[in-house]
Amino acid sequence: MVFAGSTWYLVATHRRVRKTFRMERINRATLLPDRVGRPEGFDLRQSWSQIRDGYRDADGVDIAVEVPVDRVQLVRRLMSINLLGAVTEEARDGRTVQLMRVRSLRGAVAILLGFGDLLTVIDPPELRALMVEVAEQAISAHT
Fold first, then answer.
1. Residue 118 and residue 133: Cα distance in Å, rounded?
2. CB neighbourhood size of 79 (10 A)
């Protein structure tokens, strides 16, 4: 297990492929009779570093979202499905700016629009424009 940022991950091999699993998403476990051991020569620190580097190298888009302090954890939790890597933040006048790398702008819009006026997208301009476009489509479809 690895603690990164504010999240615990399980690093495991499944069908000979190394994977990571967010602990908060595991909602059931079954105790099996077979004992499982760490593979010979396995170095967790090195493995985690390779996994992290893979996420950093993945395509994605950097975004900045201004969020009230009391909504930060909710935004991070809901955005986690679209994130590449860790979220960082800057404080600005009682609000925080969450800096994150997302897999897709459309995926970010799908989550962020649900917050209505509880947050403000700062960057990139393409995300702001897409937020407006999707909101207008929703208004058109429902009026």
1. 18
2. 19
- Residues 6 or more apart whose Cβ sits within 8 Å of residue 114: 78
In one-letter notation, the amino acid at residue 60 is G
pTM of the model: 0.58
Is the pLDDT at 28 greater than 60, yes or no? yes
**Which tokens belong to 59?**
């395509």
Which tokens go with 120? Answer: 């403000």
What are the pLDDT digits (tens) for 75-115? 999 998 888 878 888 887 777 899 999 988 999 999 999 99
Strands 7-14 and 17-22: antiparallel
Distance CA 137, CA 109 (A): 13
Tokens linked to 19: 């994977």
How many whole angstroms separate alpha carbon 143 and alpha carbon 139?
6
Q: Exposed, middle or buried: residue 85 (CB in 10 Å: 0-12, 13-18, 19+)?
A: middle
